[in-house]
Each structure stands twice: as structure tokens, then as C-alpha cells.
Amino acid sequence: MSFKFSLHQGEASSPRLGTLHTPHGDVSTPQFMPVATRGIMRGPWPQTLKPMGVEMMLANSFHLFARPGTELITKLGGLHKAMAWDGPILTDSGGFQAFSLATSKVTDKGVTMRHPVDGSYVDWTPKVAFEVQQALGPDIAMLLDECPSDPRDRDSVALAVKRTINWARIQREMHQHRGGASSGQAQFGIVQGGVFQDLRQECASKLIELDFDGYAVGGVSVGEGHQAMMDGVRFSTGLLPQDKVRYLMGVGTPLDLVESVARGVDIFDCVYPTRSGRYGSFMTDEGMQHIHNARFADDTRPLMEGCECDACSTKMPRGMLRAALKEREIVAASMLAHHNLHYLIKLMARIRTAIGDGSFEQLRAKVVAAYPVKS
Ligand SMILES: [Zn+2]
Prior knowledge:
By secondary structure, this protein is α/β, with parallel strands linked by helices. It has helices at about 50, 60-65, 70-75, 80-85, 95-100, 125-135, 155-175, 195-210, 225-240, 255-260, 270-280, 310-315, 320-325, 330-355, 360-370, and strands at about 5-10, 15-20, 25-30, 30-35, 55-60, 90, 105, 110-115, 120-125, 140, 185-190, 215, 245-250, 265-270, 280-285, 285-290.
């Protein structure tokens, strides 16, 4: 089955409702993808994901290539089998790792990255990123792009845009040669351009000419501040075709999700819910709480009253989870991660319902009040 996005409601930079059709099932948008960098999540167990409402997952092709290795994943029957997940999967290309790993070096040909396990140098070119993702077999492959480290440095952003476009052409040609989206794998372009509107415009228009199956807004949430990030999101969604899915990479706080949906974004991913949970933070309708806070020491309530997640359903009191997390008990860390993921997945469902029944602005106001912008 081929890949298709159906937009049911909404316009360029307003809240949208849609369905993403993939070979491994439909995804209702707006949607949040949990991150299993190396194919396995840190906290929640695979069989708990569908019951909580997860519809699509993300894994990272560069990390999978490094360990456990593309060959092993292939031997195990491909990424879906290896991850024990039969729903849609999107793989990131490793472009962001080039940005976040200080040891990487970018040239016109691609990225040279240090192998995170054996320390050797890996030439991660557009061709390699493409081939590895073809071998892994996700439903959606992201292009290798260059995410400039400083979104305000015009020279380096302009160079990154040039490389992103050139690499996009190489990867698009390879993809079409393999049969395009009807081969079972869709391909998304990534709009770069930092804080410069003309560069974002140039990048978007060149990518749109190549007619990708979806488009990601890249190079945001790299320390530019909430308002600048949201201005960049609104500007970018305004450049993208309405009938293609829009993906904001690496964004996942309740505030950023609701504000980005308000600006026309359809899908998201982030390690935020699981990572923050493992460190003791848990989401509630009253905002983020921190289990290490002394006021929770003898608190007999579950993480969130009324929450139906597997962690809260045990009725384990906050005081016990706090004590257990102090002792680095892995089940306690896993329970907080699970609760947070459940909270975000349910928040996305509430957002979809609210867009549908016209109450999105009320929900948005509640989320903004509970999760205010940190100054
Ligand atoms: Zn819960």
C-alpha cells in the first residue's frame, strides 16, 4: 500500500486534522511519536504503547547503524519485527546527530561522524543515509540534511541550506529510482534556514519542486527561545503545501505541542516525556511536578489522580515512587516515563477532539496556563 496524507480540516498555519495513511496503518494527526533511538524505548514496554494510543514511532538510523547495526536488524526481519511494533515507523537520518555530536564534521559531500561505539570515523553521506534507511525498512525515511549549529549565523546557515538542497536532490533521485512511495517507504524533506526568512523560503521552494511525501521543519528548538521558535514555525508552515503532512522535529513539551498545532504542525517527536520522567518530573493538568520535591515525601496519591496509565493504575503512592527513584530503582523510573508518555499521547487526543468540536482555543489556554513559558 502506498503513502498518502488526507487533510480533513484546517489551513496552512492553523490547527489541522488529518490522516496519514502508511503501509503499517493510519495515523490520526496531530500526533506525537515516542522516540526509540536504538529501536527500544527507555521506560515504556512495547506492548503498552498501542493501548495508550501511540500510532507511530520514531527510531534513529545513524544510531541503529552504529549499534545494534543494520545487518542485525535485517537478520531479525527488519525494523518493525526488531522493535516488536507493527505500526508505522519513521526514522531520522542522523542530520541532527551531526549537530549535536561535537566530534562530527560537515563537508559538501556529507557528514563525518565518530562511531559512538568504536570511535572510528564514519562517512555519513546522503547515499549512505538513504541506503541504511532502505535496509532498515521504516515507513518514512527522513533526508540527511545539515542543521546549522547557530541559527543566527547567516553564512553558515546559507551554506547549510545549499547542502541540504543538494543532498535532497541526490536522495530524491535514489528514492524515485527505487519506485518512490509505492516501494513502501515515503521520504520527507527538511526545511532549514535558521532565523532567516529568505533562506527558509529558498529551502522550502527547492524542496517543494522535488515533491516530497511530507516536510519537516528543521533547525528550530536549538536554543533560540520560545517566541522566536514559534515565529519560525508559523513562517515555515506558511511556506509548505497544505496537502502534505508537516513534522516539527524534536519538540515535545505540552506548551510547544499546543502552540505548534495552533500554527499548523501535524506530527512531532521528542525524548522529553520519557527522559524527564526518568529524572523525576511528571506531567499533570496543573503543570510539571518534580517527585524529588520534599512535599511529595509522604504523599499517598498516585502520580495523577484520574490518570488511567499503567503506572497510576497500580496506585503506587508518590511518596514510594520518590523513595524508589532516589535509590535508582529502574521500575520507578520506567513508571514515571510511562505516565509522561501516556499524558502526552492523551493530550494529543484531546487536541484532536478540541480541533474537531471547535474548543481548541479553550484547551490551548489551559495548557498555556499550566505550562507557562519559562523566562
Ligand atoms: Zn498516569
